[in-house]
Amino acid sequence: MSLNVPSIAQLKELTLPAPVSYSPQTWGWWFLLAILFLAAAIIGTRRLIQWRRDRYRREALARLEQLRTHSDELHALRELPGLLKRVALSMQGQKSLTSSAAAAALGNSEWQTFLQAHVDQQLPDEFAQQLATLAYAPDATLLALSAPRRDALFDTCKLWVERHHVAA
């Protein structure tokens, strides 16, 4: 009886499969890849343009936060109306105004109408009048404002700067 014992010399090396390319094999995949890259480039470009266009908004919000925490409350309150006017002057593509100089000339009811027309939430009815009071009232009147009323003014200004829309 002979035993047939396998030995290492009998082992044969396995053949490896042919290498597979990771690149797409048909033109349709290349076309789809090109469309995806083009869409990503368009979306990225539009976001960059929007980000640059909203620079004035980011700067106004930063200034508003500085004013909110400013140690001189009188100075901070006095600067609020001017800040909103500067934001209105910085808005691009205004169809409702013939020029940016027209926004600077608005006052009282026209200013209230302008502010309300460019935001999708209801502003307080006398918001423009409150801004005029901040700009022109005696110091004693401003210092007599209660803390909740001052906070409400800052919150309304922040809401308008964040949410105003520009006619395109």
Walk me through the structure.
The N and C termini lie far apart (98 Å). This protein is mostly helical and 168 residues long. The protein has a domain at 55-163. It is elongated and about 120 Å long. The chain is built from 8 helices and no strands. Helix 2 (55-68) packs antiparallel against helix 8, helix 3 runs parallel beside helix 8 (147-163) and helix 5 (108-117) crosses helix 6 (127-136). Helices cover 64% and strands 0% of the residues. It has helices spanning 27-53, 55-68, 73-90, 100-105, 108-117, 127-136, 139-143, 147-163.
Record keyword descriptors for this entry.
168 residues
Unreliable residue stretches: none
* Percent of residues in helices: 55-70%
- The count of helical stretches stands at 8
Mean pLDDT: 85
Residues in β-strands, percent: under 5%
- Largest sheet geometry: none
Shape: elongated
Q: What's the gyration radius in Å?
A: 33 Å
How is the quaternary structure best described? single chain
Order of helices and strands: HHHHHHHH
Terminal Cα span = 98 Å
Count of individual beta strands: 0
What structural class should be given to the helix and strand makeup? mainly alpha
In short:
The chain is 64% helix and 0% strand.
Q: What is this structure's SSE topology?
A:
Elements: H1 27-53, H2 55-68, H3 73-90, H4 100-105, H5 108-117, H6 127-136, H7 139-143, H8 147-163
